[in-house]
Amino acid sequence: MTILFVLLSILVLILLITWVKLNPFLAFLISSILAGFLLGIPPEKIAKSVQMGMGSLLGDLVIVITMGAMLGKLVAESGAAQRISDTLMAIFGVKNVHWAMMVTGLVVGIPLFYNVGFVLLVPLVFTVSYQYKLPAVYVGMPLLAALSVTHGFLPPHPSPAALVAQFGANMGLTLVYGLIIVIPTIIIAGPLFARFLKNIKSSPLETFQAKPKREEELPGNFNSFFSALFPVALLIGTTVLAFQIPETSSIYHYILFVGDPGMVMLISLLLATYTLGLRMNFSINTLMDLYVVSVKDISMILLIIAGAGALKQVLMDSGVSQTIADGLQGWDVHPLVLAWTITAIIRVCVGSATVAGLTTAGIIAPLVSGGVVDPNLLVLSIGAGSLMFSHFNDAGFWMFKEYFNVSIKDTLKSWSLMETIVAVVGLGGVMLLDLII
């Protein structure tokens, strides 16, 4: 009955949005409360679950998304995004724009958290789409596929890094195996899949669609790349330093502070305010007005993400993930396939890749201690399963839909299907490596 109640709650969510035409934020609240009652959470605790879910998810994302929107608006309005897109087009050519986006997403996605990378690079996607009259989803999907895969598969991202620690795997070896699997996975789910998405209608947020500037008005190549990608460099630098400096050192804690994604985005925005703003003859009043407009444009996105967090928390508090995991533990299948299946089902039901991965880890851990399976491949198998079929209960689904401004149907046909391809191809890569190693 547990699975049935979860499916019923998600069905109500879908109907409220698509049939009743209710605002997604309100639909999430109603569905979350309904799920709480159906799954047996005491009535007095349902409201607390909803509030905790909204607060915990926004607590992680609100600084990143708002600062990213401000930085994205500045990168677009200053002409830096246009300069970067011109450079990439000169290297790859317009016909190979999807490959340029894939490479950008892969390079940036390894050190950058998904949400940071999304809000940082979306202006680049929209600028290329606007400037060269190309479909936004076609241009953006290879980049988003790369960001998603690196987030789910590769340390030092939170879930893979935590799994490496739990299974006693080797982080360097997991990263090497991961890259072997990641590259073909991204190629299939990115540039190749994107060819089927050219007809999807998209009207991206206008805040990221700056009108083309004349050559003499654009910032230089170094300024454009440096300012836009400074968050990447800062995250890489702090991550490397955190591994090199002992935890007992007084500097270590300051490195962790500076390396926090929210702090990275704040520092990067302040830097860009000078390099792309004041230095390019923008007045401080003009810059602050740009920032206000950028935040207004994403306010509903924040509410929708908060609603997704409420539903996720209700499902977690009800014990759904553990119930599903316990029910599947006795299946007589290959350990890597079992780990992937458990993770995928929890991911579809709960919506959180991290929750799905870490829940599965507790169930599968005995396989590692018994030497039944390679722990490095187990990390990657769970990582692949954690990306399975992102839909209505996943914040990433709503970020894609609202930023690209596409319909629910087209979001399922593009974003959700891309995530499914990533999960399936990723498992295939893991099983192939298991035969070779």
TrEMBL record:
Main location: membrane
Domain of life: Bacteria
Cell location: Cell membrane
Keywords tagged on the record: Cell membrane, Membrane, Transmembrane, Transmembrane helix, Transport
Annotated TM spans: 26-43, 55-76, 96-122, 134-154, 174-197, 218-245, 251-278, 290-311, 337-365, 377-400, 415-436
InterPro entries given in the database record: Glcn_transporter (IPR003474)
Membrane disposition: Multi-pass membrane protein
Pfam families registered for this protein in UniProt: GntP_permease
GO molecular function: gluconate transmembrane transporter activity
Gene Ontology terms: cellular component: plasma membrane
Signal sequence interval, chain numbering: none
Record-stated family: Belongs to the GntP permease family.
Name of the protein described by the UniProt record: Gnt-II system L-idonate transporter IdnT
Organism field: Rhodonellum psychrophilum GCM71 = DSM 17998
